[in-house]
Amino acid sequence: MITKIIPCLWFDECAEQAMNYYLSVFPNSEITHIERYPDESLNEHFVGKAGKVISGEFVLDGVKFRCLDGGPVFKMNEAISFTIDCKDQSEIDYYWEKLSYFTELEQCGWCKDQFGMTWQILPHNMGELLANGGNKAIQVMMQQQKIIISDIENAK
C-alpha cells in the first residue's frame, strides 16, 4: 500500500543526526534514502554544504517520514506533535527517558526532544483511564509531567 500522507520534518542542519537518533529510540526503524548536497561549485547556494543532507526518508516503527535540512528559517513548535501509544508504564518510562529534553515544557504527557519535536507519550487506554476516574483523574493528569498510570487509576 502506498502511503499518501507523509509527515515532513524541517531541521536546521541536523536532519541526519535526528534521523539516526530516532532510529536508536524506535524499534523496526530504518533510513530509506538520503539526498546530499552536490559539489558546492555547482551553485552559490551550495557553498559550505557539499555532502551535507538536503533531505531524507526514514521509517520509525512502521511510520514513514521525510525530512529536510532547511536551515533556521522555520522552527518546530507544539502546534504539531506525534503521539506514542504505550502499552504500559515501562514503555511510557522508556520513551520519556529517550525523548524528554526540555523539562520546563513538560505537561500532561507532552515533552519536547532535543531537535524540537513535540511528543505525546500516553497509555493506549488514556481515554478510558480518564473516563473511569472522572474529574479527579483529569485533575491528577493535569498535574503530571510524565504520565503515571497508577496515579490516574488511583485518583479518588
Automatic annotation (TrEMBL):
Task: Mention one GO molecular function.
Answer: methyltransferase activity
Cross-referenced Pfam families: 3-dmu-9_3-mt
Stretches assigned to the PhnB-like domain: 4-121
Query: Does the keyword rRNA-binding belong to this entry?
Result: no
Does the keyword field hold Transferase?
yes
InterPro entries the record matches: 3_dmu_93_MTrfase, Glyas_Bleomycin-R_OHBP_Dase, PhnB-like
- What is the name attached to this protein's record? Putative 3-demethylubiquinone-9 3-methyltransferase (Glyoxalase superfamily)
Q: Which organism is it from?
A: Lactovum miscens
Q: What is the lineage of its organism?
A: Bacteria, Bacillati, Bacillota, Bacilli, Lactobacillales
